[in-house]
């Protein structure tokens, strides 16, 4: 089976390696994004997919835009049976979709039509989903609107962060892609249209997505902390400074050490964002009288410290809040 592989980040690497290891699959070429400068030093890095292609001595192409005529000429010359595309990072123009015999096959990290878009793993966790999965899909001109080929469901751990789930999913996805490619070539898969009325969207993350709304329930804030790791993270303000936070929801207010000693505390600290606690136990009031156990704080321009180190250094005053101007 003659394949072209399109992909860029680490999430796509296990599938590329998996396909390269199959003797009856021939990867004719790899297409990945151009090298980009990253970090404070703006050092140029290769994409993870490029690293694999170079090591395997697979012909590599890095067009600035996949819509340029040279890419169409390349694909027409290669005449692949299928093009596998995973997290490539660009929209494929309609005129390229008919070039491979069996189409462009995408491994999407959600159970479509839920979570169409660039960040399905992040938004599934942020929205408190307990299950997710993969969909192999024949892409069309829309945003993740193509026909569904195969799907595989899996659980989301209650404390799992987006990077952890992405790593686990990237290793679990390749067999589903293999089954899809073989099924398409053998004519055993019947594509089925998506129910567009059930679609939800997982847009690319923006910095403001990480801003904590303390009126949310503690569990909702925690879900967003997990879903938006490592960027944009979960952040708020303290004494006019931006700070990133890490924490966990408290199951019941009665489990708070301070509340056991003084049952009036939930009412006294019901204003969302209010900090309270002592020694190694620090909490933040959230919406609907729920509480977040504060674990770590990173003030802008400083290193990350534990909640107790933050409280000792700040010399917290009664009633101080996160989120105050």
CATH T-level topology of the largest domain: Rossmann fold
Portion of residues within helices: 25-40%
CATH architecture descriptor text of the largest domain: 3-Layer(aba) Sandwich
- Give the class from helix and strand content and strand pairing: alpha/beta
Strand segment tally:
15
- Number of domains as seen in the coordinates: 2
* Unreliable parts: none
* Largest sheet strand order: 5-2-1-6-7-8-9
Mean pLDDT: 93
Which word captures the global form? elongated
Number of helical stretches of at least 4 residues: 10
CATH class of the largest domain: Alpha Beta
Instruction: Write down the Rg.
Output: 24 Å
Order of helices and strands: EHEEEHEHEEHEEHHHEEHHEEEEH
- Major sheet details: 7 strands, mixed
State the CATH superfamily name of the largest domain: Formyl transferase, N-terminal domain
Strand content: 25-35%
Q: In whole angstroms, how far apart are the ends?
A: 61 Å
